Ribosome-binding ATPase YchF
Amino acid sequence: MGHGPPRAPPLFLTVELDKTPPTDIGQTAAFARRPASVLAEALLMALSIGIVGLPNVGKSTLFNSLSSAKAEAANYPFCTIEPNVGVVVVPDDRLEKIDSVIHADRILPTTINFVDIAGLVRGASKGEGLGNQFLSHIREADAIVQVGRCFEDSNVIHVENRVDPVADVATVTMELCLKDLETVQKRLDRARKMAKSNDPKEKLAGEICEMLSKHLDDGKPARTAQLPDSVDAVAIVREMHLLTAKPAFYIANIDEGTIANLDGNKHFQALKQLAESEGSFVVPVCAALESQIAELDPKDRPEFLESAGLKEPGLHGVIRAGYKLLGLQTFFTAGKQEVRAWTTKIGAKAPQAAGVIHTDFEKGFIKAEVMWWEDLVTLGSEAKCREAGKLAIEGKEYVMRDGDVVHFRFNV
Ligand SMILES: Nc1nc2c(ncn2[C@@H]2O[C@H](COP(=O)(O)OP(=O)(O)O)[C@@H](O)[C@H]2O)c(=O)[nH]1
Ligand SMILES: [Mg+2]
């Protein structure tokens, strides 16, 4: 195996992607044969999580901390794509460990997008506040995280004059439910009109819409509705693109005083109970602390975290939660130029993973050479893995694992 065909060229596209400012895209050789929108395409392909919640709960503070953890993100020159869309680095300890045996020129983590969605207030579904502008942002997001204010601070006005995250969450969820109700009602009208045609799918659509109407009317998100478990039913619901059908979790924005002692924060406990009743979960953070952590030099962070009683920045938990909720996993490429993490959906096969790096890798996929990241770190090199029989040659049907280190062979 050591005398196989020459190594595939380095990952030129991705290297260029990070180094080339957007205006120069069409001019570099690597991009010459690709559409100028390749950067836009790459960024759009990234899955995104929308941050929602009432005003003054700490959304923007969290968003800014997420997208301005500058040191890690230095390799991403356009960390904020639009003022409210941020590219966020997915923290992963394995990168450093892999690099401890590779000594690459640089390490590149994988990313996920967060979107700061303002404008949700009571009455928003009827155009209050910023009107319906927020809706398109929520529709575009792949998942939703709702921030609940659990901190008391008389200097920060609460729009409804009380600190009650469960009530806040209910208000926001209700606005989204009301918007979904309109969608469901339209679909129901159509199903009823079509009833005469005896189309079984329309009959099913009618039943589903009736169930959903009742559920949404109670202020319950569509994702928690018990619906028929069939391919048609799933398609009917999916086609409606309901806001409350998106996967969701919660952030509890806690004050500095109780972040290290959550049992003592009744607001957090209440929010946790609500999340769990929906089969979801809540991640505790202190937005005020997170914004200080994001400003710090990475080498000063451990001491700061320790003094705050934290093991890691709370935002790491938020990022991991979002990643998991979206059903994502990580694989690595490791070479002299870079050690890099990439994202695929759980269950992706080797050619799809190759396509995350470059569409040519997918089209011309031949095989994947796969090592387990820990084997690489323990044995010290790809050659050693090969000798030890720890480097597998996999084909098109190989299902990627979280933690694979891969070298793709392809033909263009
Ligand atoms: N005391 C305290 N204030 C916070 C915290 N998080 C946010 N704030 C403050 O609350 C105000 C509103 O925060 P912002 O992030 O703009 O809220 P948004 O309207 O949800 O985007 C700002 O003055 C923040 O500094 C926190 O954890 N503790
Ligand atoms: Mg804001």
